[in-house]
Amino acid sequence: MRSFTVILLSLTLACTQTQELRFTRLTENQSGIDFNNKLSYTEQLNPYTYKNFYNGGGVGIGDINNDGRPDIFFCGNQVSNKLYLNKGGMKFEDITEQAGLMSQNVWSAGVSMVDINGDGLLDIYVCKSGPPGGDKRHNELFINNGDMTFKEQSVQYGLDNEGLSSHAAFFDFDKDGDLDCYLLNNSIKSVGGYDMIKDQRNLPDSLGGNKLLRNDSGYFSDVTTEAGIYASDIGFGLGVTIGDINRDHWPDIYVSNDFFERDYLYINDQKGGFTESIEQYIQEMSLGSMGADFADINNDGLSEIFVTEMLPEQHERLVSKAIFQSWDKHQLMVENGYANQFGRNVLQLNNGNNTFSEIGRYAGVEATDWSWGALIFDMDNDGYKDIFVANGIYKDLLDLDYVNFMSQPGQIKNIIKNKKDAIKSMIDLMPSEPLANYAFHNRGENTFENKAGAWGLTDLTFSSGAAYGDLDNDGDLDLVVNNVNMPSWIYQNNTQELDNLQNHLTIQLKGVGQNSQAIGSKIKVYAGGQIFYQELNPFRGFESTVDTKILFGLGTDKPDSLEIIWPDGYSTLLYDVPVNERLSFDQKEEQKMAERNDTKSTIFKEQTDLLSFTHKEQPYVDFDKDRLLFQMNSSEGPCQCKADVNHDGRADLYVGGASGQSGALFIQDEAGFQKINKPFDQAISSEDLSCAFFDANGDGHLDLYVASGSSEFDVYALGLLDHLFFGDGHGAFKDSHQKLPNKGFESSSVVVPYDFDQDGDMDLFVGGRQRAGYYGVPTNSHLLENDGSGKFTNMTQNRAPLFLKLGMVTDALTTDLDQDGVEELIVVGHWMAPKVFKSHQNQLIDATDQFELGGYAGLYNTIAKGDFNEDGYVDLIFGNQGTNSRYHASTDYPLGLLVNDFDQNGSIDLIVSMFDDKIEYPLVQLKELSMQLPYIKKDYLKFSDFKTATLKDIFGEKLDKGGYHLKVNELRSFMWMNHPKADYHIAELPYQFQLFPIYDFLLEDFNTDGYIDLLAAGNFLRAKPEIGSNMGGHTALGMGNGSDSFKFVMNSKTGISISEEVRSIESLYIKDKQALVFGINNGSNKIFVKNEVN
To answer: 3-state SS string over 214-247?
Structure first.
């Protein structure tokens, strides 16, 4: 009896676990689908002779016989395409042969299921690829005869392209009522045949180029060149996505390009053409872009863009499979017009003002290995769209041990000499490892969690194309995946059985004229204070077509209204919308012209004619000196500071220069600004990082201290000296010629006037940033005592010995935190926790523990103060690296920096480390590490040896011998809330403040409601490709409410959008209008003036 009970319990648990899976993979016997895209290589046809050999094929879902049940089409490479008729109940029948669709030995890639002739029947367009020649090599268009048979008519329609076609997207780009075609072709040339020469994309290629084909009364005419479409042989296109990017009710085009060519974003000019504009919209792109999709992930009515690449997530695969560009090659690409591309997936967050912020690393979706299909849809009907990624490559061409082996001429000669089928033998050596696909669950606030395992998508695969549709019409979206060398998979979605409280709504549209499917329509469902938004453009992901019935998951919300914007710009409105039903709409019943996305009044507007300063960095590369650095430290200016230097009641502005460039003082008068370079040009060799106006010599006039420093200077460079300029009260200054902050030469980062001895004159704190050639070694900061006449003496050793080797300081301020009448000094920096110093008996002592800030070690760039919650005590806000980065850190698993001379050659070695699955590894790749530390080579001859090597394995007892092991456990920017009873706490900022490294804050009451508001700016560009730039911020404004929180205001409403690297912000009044001046690194400053009426 006991055995029976145990068996029964086990069976019950097994059944329960099966039932709880969100997706169930149907067997061939269950579904009737037996498609297997089998591939075998030969000496003549293989990944070497055909670069797209293992790209796989697409999936199409659509109702070919109008019975209300979506059918499935699979593309085969060396096997025939297959069409399966949906018989209901998730049962399918192979009708390929009787439908006239057999295609044995014809290499098909992508499929587009579309009613091309407007007869209400779904036709099938198949893109062909593979080797040239042979029967039916051209793309084929199968016209639906209405009796479940098809007739091939590509020639008659002008769609018989013969090349390496990947996919085709059909859409009405000119709004003439019929569907045109964007044909995505992959270049026929070898990738190695290019040198990243400028302007190659402007040279048309008749064979390999993409094409825009206009539908002229049923015949598709090539209008590629006249419409502004690139058709060159560097367009290795793998994905094409259609959508209204700029919300003008005209369809735009996104093309994802593999290899070195950047992606294309074509904005419809509404005149029959397009303007390629990706660099105006997007700052960071995928390098080897593959699949792409376009959908709204946060229910704000704006669509995001997701593009897949090949970056592995697992550490072992990352260090043995990933190849990153060198900094020099990356710069060459940028300089030659190939944009800022990185080897990772990207998720482009729509800012609502025709700009996007790349947030893939913040969202947790940047690494999914060798990825193809990318689909954004609500997999669990909770109201938030999730992301599915199909990945895997049957032969791992980029395995680093294989690449290394094949790069040895002797090995190749040996294979050619001794093997009959030499090429085939070389391919046999390629590793083959199936991988699980990804199912990213949307957790809200644009973050995702991979739930592939929990949702039943655990199979290890070589997946390529994928599509979704409600195959059983039960109110949730099922998933179909095309695999290489294994059966295709049908995943039945069980959401409606698991979560019957989750609401849904299915919309079926009927168009007019030649666009019977109403392709290009936009649907907005209003529910629970959110906008659930989708566009009907079914050609998505990778080489695939999704069903045209649009299904909305709504969670527990119920819709109150619905709007359909039809392709012609007219709309249909519906109130009292039912839920959990399928609603059908006919375009003939459209009601009124939809509203345009008109520009509304913003808080600020840009003005370019007020003052002009262009910061110009020297072409210095930190990585040439410090090979293992990941980010440069020579691009931290310009500083800005304001003051009324001539007592006329107007604010004047000093802007710091870069090395080789004079800083400038802009004196304001009635006409505008007068630019003054003297005597600041005497410090032209310096890099100005901080400045402060104060009365140094007690004459009643403001003087100017400029702190200088940069990693580009040698240890005895004059450019490291700071400068104190005495002002005469009329706008003229002269250099005091003091050697500041010390008689030696050190890199300064910040200066803070600070009467530490309370004798009535201003002393100075000068923060030390770094030592030349010794990055990571804690640097001295300085306390300079003023004798009252403006002569400063370094009193660090006597009054503030704790400033010695304080760290890599970036910013500081003074304020009275505990209201004892004496200001504290708060200091922040990189690889250090905030430090608080109190003055006690003319000594500065460490009071960090008193204010409970010692546990927040970060990569801080700036600090600011304000009483945010209006309790009478000053709070602090810290600008940190942010969490939209490859770096990850926590208390238990900190980011690390080892600073030591491991090989005893007299030079510092820098090792950045990070935890993966609770194990600490170096971030550096084996090749770069062995170049820095040659002795490593004997321990790790292969990448497979290195892939499991931990930090402890590599350095052993050297980890604890000498040097420094710095750690960071906090990367967020945050507020520290002061309290009269020492009840301190940390308050989070809105997630938009975590999308970029913050370099400066401005605290003001922008909306005049009596509460402090918060403006943040930053970004960082000069990072190695394996880490990538951090350009996700276009500034962030948060409105205060007198508590410990801020409400983010979109850039489209603030009017402030800056895609460059901001290093400083100043607010001043110019001609009685408030103006915000942003100091831009290696660029021209930006000025935004407040609108009188908001």
So the answer is: EEECCEEEECCCCCCCCCCCCCCEEEEEEECCCC
Neighbours of 472 (CB within 10 A): 18
Q: What are the residues facing 243 on neighbouring strands?
A: 252
d(CA 378, CA 386): 5
Cα separation, 229 vs 495, whole angstroms: 42
Pair of tokens at residue 397: 């061409």
Q: What residues pair up with 275 in beta bridges, in sequence order?
A: 267
Q: What angle do CA 37, 43, 47 make, to 5 degrees?
A: 55
Map 906-936 to HEC letters: CCCEEEEEEEECCEEEECCCHHHHHHHCHHH
Residue pair 50/101 in contact by the 8 Å Cβ criterion: no
Q: Are 545 and 168 in contact (CB under 8 A)?
A: no
Phi and psi of 762, rounded to 5°?
-90, 120
CA triple 901-904-907, angle to 5 deg: 50
Beta bridge partners of 326: none
Taking a C-beta distance cutoff of 8 angstroms, is the pair 724, 740 a contact? yes
pLDDT band of residue 883 (cuts 50, 70, 90) is very high
- Give whole-number Cα distances, 953 to 851, 901, 932, 948, in Å: 38, 17, 17, 9
Q: Which two tokens stand for residue 71?
A: 């059918």
pLDDT digits (tens, 9 = 90+) for 905-929: 999 999 999 999 999 999 999 999 9
Q: How many Cβ atoms from other residues are within 10 Å of residue 475's Cβ?
A: 21
**Cα distance between residue 1086 and residue 606, in whole Å:** 7
Structure tokens that stand for 81 in this block: 């395409």
Alpha helix segments (H runs only) across 489-569: 495-498
Read off the pLDDT of residues 36-91 as tens digits, 9 standing for 90 and up.
Answer: 999 999 999 999 889 899 999 999 999 999 999 999 999 999 999 999 999 999 99
CA distance 844 to 832: 19
* Percent of the chain predicted with pLDDT > 90: 87
Other C-beta atoms closer than 10 Å to the C-beta of 6 total 10
CA angle 184, 185, 187 (to 5 degrees): 145
Task: Compute the radius of gyration of the chain from its Cα atoms.
Answer: 32
How does pLDDT run across 837-850, given as a tens digit for each residue? Answer: 999 988 999 999 99
Residue with tokens 């507007």: 605
Beta bridge partners of 555: 503
Cα 903 to Cα 262, 897, 931, distances in angstroms: 41, 17, 12
Bridge partners, 168 (sequence order):
183
pLDDT tens for 373-413 read 999 999 999 999 999 999 999 999 899 999 998 888 888 88
d(CA 103, CA 673): 73
Residue 273 to residue 849: CA distance in whole angstroms: 64
Q: Which DSSP helix (H) or strand (E) runs through 8?
A: helix 2-20
Dihedral of the alpha carbons of 818, 824, 828, 833, in degrees to the nearest 10? -50
Per-residue CA distances from 222 to 111, 181, 182, 209 (Å): 20, 10, 10, 12
Q: Does the pTM exceed 0.85?
A: yes
In the chain, count of helices (H) and strands (E)?
17, 75
Answer whether residue 6 shows pLDDT above 60.
no
∠ CA 521-525-529 to the nearest 5 degrees?
A: 145
Tokens representing residue 757 in the block? 């001895």
Taking alpha carbons only, the member of 736, 768, 737, 734 closest to residue 751 is 768
799/796 Cα distance (integer angstroms): 5
* CA distances for 721 relative to 745, 769, 974, angstroms: 6, 13, 33
Q: DSSP labels for 446-482? A: TEEEE-TTTTT---EE-EEEEEEE-TT-SSS-EEEEE
Q: Structure tokens of 363?
A: 């969202």
Give the Cα separation of 280 and 266 in Å (integer): 11
Both tokens assigned to 85: 């008729």
Q: Is 901 helix (H, G, I), strand (E, B) or coil?
A: coil
